[in-house]
Amino acid sequence: MAGGIVAELFERDEEMKLLTDVMAGVRRREGGVVLIGGGPGVGKTALLDVFLRRAADAGAQVFSASGSVAASGADLAVIKELFLGSDDEEEIRSATRSSKGAGEFEDRLFAAMCRETRGQLVVVAVDDVQLADAASLRCLLYLVRRLRTAPLMMVLCESTGPHMLPPAIHAELLRHPQARQLRLLPLSRDGIAGVIEHHVDTTEASDLVADFHAVSGGNPLLVHALLADSRDARRLDPHQPSKAVASTAFTKAALAWAYRAEAELFDVACGFAVLGEAATPPLVACLVGRGADAVEQVMTALDTAGLLDGGTFRDAAVGKAILENVDAVTKADLRRRAARLLHDDGAPATVVAQHLLAASVTESWAGRTLLAAAETAMEEGQEELSLDCLRLAGQSARTERERSAVVMARVKIGWRIDPRLVSPWLDPLVDALNAGHLKGGDAAWTVKHLAWHGQFREAEESLARLGEAPYAGDPRVEDELHVVRHWLKSTCPSVSDEAPGRAPRPQRRGLQPRQVSPSSYAVELLGTVMAEGPHDHTVAMAEEILRGCRYNETVVEALEAALLTLVYADRPDRALFWCDALLQQAGPRSSGTVVAILSGVRAEIALRQGMLPAAEEFGRAALAAISLPGWGMAVGTPLSSLVLATTASGKSGAAGAWLNGDVPERMFETRHGLLYTHARGHYHLAVDRPAAALEDFLTCGELAKEWGTDTPTFLPWRSSAAQAHLALGNSVEARALVREQLGRPGGSTFRARGVSLRLLAAVSGPDQRPALLRESINLLEACGSQVELIRALADRSQALHALGAPAKARMAARHARTVADNCGADALFRRLFRDEVPDGEGGLEGVEGEDEGSAGLTAAERRVTALAAVGHSNREIGRKLFITKSTVEQHLTRVYRKLGVRSRAELSDLFVGTNMGAGPGAERLARTS
Fold first, then answer.
1. Which among 509, 453, 508, 500 is positioned nearest to 481, based on CA atoms?
2. Of 42, 210, 245, 384, which sits with the fewest C-beta atoms within 10 Å of its C-beta?
3. Of the spans 195-199, 252-256, 613-617, 808-812, which averages the highest pLDDT?
């Protein structure tokens, strides 16, 4: 046991008893031999040392020696070491020089041994006997043959491995009638518990035992080393929980058995450490240049030592400790050879790439493997590994086509991590496109990457280049280009290859159907709903696409387009279902382009539903998922959601901060710029800048008309501009815009029509307003647009107050309060109902009012009203309150007058969900009723 790490034995009682029993037999002049075997580090030397000390304490004469590779070539080296310091040392040395043959020397050796005994018990022990020189082995075998006539016990320790004793020697040793064989095994979990129990907290011992066993496999040498490292770590940081820590002592222990002067053992161990989970005996043999038999023998040794599990090191810390002490040149050569072996053996690209990266292999054959590994690593969420593979692949590229392939891979993978990583590679990408080195869909999607980063001129030039050889007529290019053109139409309408003066695109001849893909259908649907408004079949097709999509298997453009189709078709409920399902598939990931875009869509959905906290939450998540530069021209979408959400929530300061950030100038030539400008207009309205708001809304309208996306379900700029006109006192212009919106495609959807009717009520006569607002409220409630519903309820409350119906006005306010509580729009409610909410008050009590509401009723009137509001008849109320029916009627008459209601139904509507009781007794009465 190296370094004296083990101070006491655990789970070796049976072995010690057998040794003691054999020694007892020797005292009866029954010579005996014990052969102790086991893998490296299992405690053979420790067991031998403890036994020899006990034997010496019991009066035995002890002779001990150890075999070694260094001395294996010197004749009788072990024999000389056995008698070193004894009375017969000089006799043995003289015999080795003067004996005329092996037989004579062996006789003289036995005679010397007999003189040493002089009737005293003798124990001869040889550790690592498999490394003893041949002459010493012959002498030991001679002594074994003479054991029957001498009080001599021989203990031999042999390590399992490629240098084990030959079978013939084993047979001769074990032929002795008093021969015993011991095979030491690693410690069990109970044995590990015995090692550590006095050094750790008992409450943590059970967890530590599992950790220690998982790392060490029960190898005593490694168990004690782990214990030493763990105790050192605990001393450095007393507050950290106890755990198995593999550090300095563990490394030394691992090297203690690996550097056993047996070259095969260390070489094979290095092979297993390098290959890791990919290790097999044939691969290790090829890697380290050793025979398959030697590798099998070392595997057996390591397995019996508890170091292997399923053909690999039980814990990576073991292999790491071994490789840390291999020089850099040798290690790099092992990695390079391992990479080639695994590549030729068909191993996964990521496994091969790990070795290529470790050795910085830039040979030409490595390029394709690195590109494949980068793609696989990206799919598995190993972004750093993916980027590392791409960097090395760039160094491996030899030709322009290979370099172009690396550039395209960098763009595709960089886009999925963060589009910011794509920006440095756009120029090389365009060069590769112009040189004709890009393939199929990769060539077409180059246009999207350029447009995303605002390089519109380069995008148009690339579109033109795709109409030339070698891309023209390539079905794969045409299919993907079809998708890209639709994406441009709905996202960057100013980028087109159909500019005036440019030759029309050639049409494919014959029956050559396009490749059917979710991307193709989805982007077409989005363009259709933005240009023509919603249709039932559009919604059905979008859901059909989403039903067949998976987070990691469908391009994000298709996911985004299908979700936005549902949003702009006034079906945010269905968009919510699918978007949440996709985000759930993303798992714990909180970064990456797909997560960013889906979070941006989720924020838009929340806005359509009026869920302001959710809109803000997902807007922030979208911006956090990738860098701001990575958002490119699309940054306007999450910013617009944040501006609208914070504005409606009364956080004008936060909204202004979002608007004060820098945005790309060319963003305003995209759909994202429209959404951003529209949100900025609403911010201007909220901070009392109606003229600036009107300018923003009219600018949106001009661009929407120019780009063919003038539908209120996508961008209701007319109703927004109408609000600005109303703030400026231009009711005629406001009415015209509202009526125009009602006639547009999509203007009859619940949300668009509900908003339009609310604004139409604002420019209509007092008698017409309640009916218009009632229909608006019904529509907005049906579609779940809660913020717009609060605004409509506020207008209705004001209209009812103006008509002298305060009770009904308060009912509208109470309804709005409930909606505001549900969607987190408390600030909006307080702003719209400031006359209903006294300073410092909130909730239903403030809405009900102190003068004419329930607070103006007497205690008796409150009790009667509480029961009447829940539907009890006058007779039932009288029985419950022990008053006459006439008294109930008198109370109700006064209540009606005070509250301004005319019937029991209005009374019930007025106090639905409200506790009318003035104290605990009344509250109990309302519950029991």
1. 508
2. 384
3. 613-617
